[in-house]
Amino acid sequence: MTHNPILITGGAGFIGSHLTDALLAKGYAVRVLDDLSTGKRSNLPLDNAKIELIEGDVADAQVVAQAMSGCQAVVHLAAVASVQASVDDPVRTHQSNFIGTLNVCEAMRQASVKRVVFASSAAVYGNNGEGHPIDEETPKAPLTPYASDKLASEYYLDFYRREHALEPVIFRFFNIFGPRQDPSSPYSGVISIFSERAQKGLPITVFGDGEQTRDFVYVEDLVKVLVQAVETPQVKPGAINVGMNKATSLNQMLEALAEVLGQIPPVSYSEARSGDIRHSRANNQRLVERFTMPEQTLMKVGLDRLLKNLSVK
Ligand code: NAD
Ligand code: UD1
Question: NAD-dependent epimerase/dehydratase domain location, by residue (predicted)?
Fold first, then answer.
């Protein structure tokens, strides 16, 4: 291990801050580049001498180049994570979600940094899964600017792999949940919104009939895979699904929440979101072959930890 830092773009956010903790615990130095649009300083242990926070925008090539200087590897997480936000404001999200990736690739080429771990998304498959486990070769069908930017980012990373010997590890995350996922906006992840509202006794709104399914992954399980991707000596081409091969409907998730909390407030159902995916479930064979999978944290265990974290805030 060299003393050079690992750059985490979006490191002050939900996933990025858990990854920061894990890398610091392993003795790495971490440099975070984050514009704090949804991330928070308070997510980071800034009193640790091994962490540095650069407040800046990945859409600014100069800032990215400065942040890249002297790093040994990059985990590129900075993006507008909300699919719905990309539908409402495609221009702004494109700056972060695509131009940001291109800037990371260019800065890596210039600084001769090879390894990049990238957060792509199950959203690239659109509705092609039709309820079956989706493997990586399933035709892509991006339904939203968010999904289009993620898929374009994957193609650019592969271009830089072929032309400039970058070593991209491209993960297609399914739905990640856990403590620190910010529940404060309508654009937030569904589990964080429902958990906070349930804990406060506020009514819950499901968009659609609640029978849409997602493959939920607890954040600490994902982080164990991300750390391996930073460290693995060899990278094979091709994107990798990060899911548990388990479909949970929103209605089932609400039942689990009710079991953990004892009861939940009234639930109402309204119109489904435009561009919303109906069913999403990962075939995770490639992930299992290439990485050591942690034992899955069960939904109720994850919900319990998330709720405890909310209640101390
Ligand atoms: P998050 O919103 O908590 O984290 C994103 C971070 O990026 C935040 O700290 C935000 O301030 C920062 N950021 C946004 N735009 C930026 C910009 N232009 N410049 C610098 N920083 C910027 O969301 P998250 O759930 O932790 O998502 C992390 C990554 O994982 C994103 O790329 C997201 O698309 C991807 N992803 C998330 C999920 C999920 O279920 N949470 C699933 C698939 C993919
Ligand atoms: C999520 C991630 C996205 C990721 C994708 C991968 C967030 C904010 N989004 O998108 O980054 O690429 O998984 O699969 O982390 N819903 C409600 N009520 C609410 C909020 C949401 O019913 O108050 C519904 C939505 O309509 C949707 C489901 O819950 O059907 C999940 O929504 P959301 O958590 O926003 O996630 P995805 O759109 O799946």
Answer: 6-243
What strands, in cross-sheet order, belong to the sheet with 73-76? 51-55, 30-34, 6-9, 73-76, 115-121, 167-173, 240-242
Ligand 2 atom at minimal distance to the Cα of residue 207: 22
**Domains in the chain, CATH or no CATH each:** 6-176+217-244+282-290 (3.40.50.720), 190-213+246-280+298-312 (3.90.25.10)
Res. 115 pLDDT band, cuts 50 70 90: very high
Return d(Cα 90, Cα 94) in angstroms, integer. 6
Token reading at 35 = 């514009």
What's the 269 CA to ligand 2 centre distance in angstroms?
15
Distance between CA atoms of residues 6 and 170, nearest Å: 17
pLDDT tens track for 265-287 = 999 999 999 888 999 999 999 99
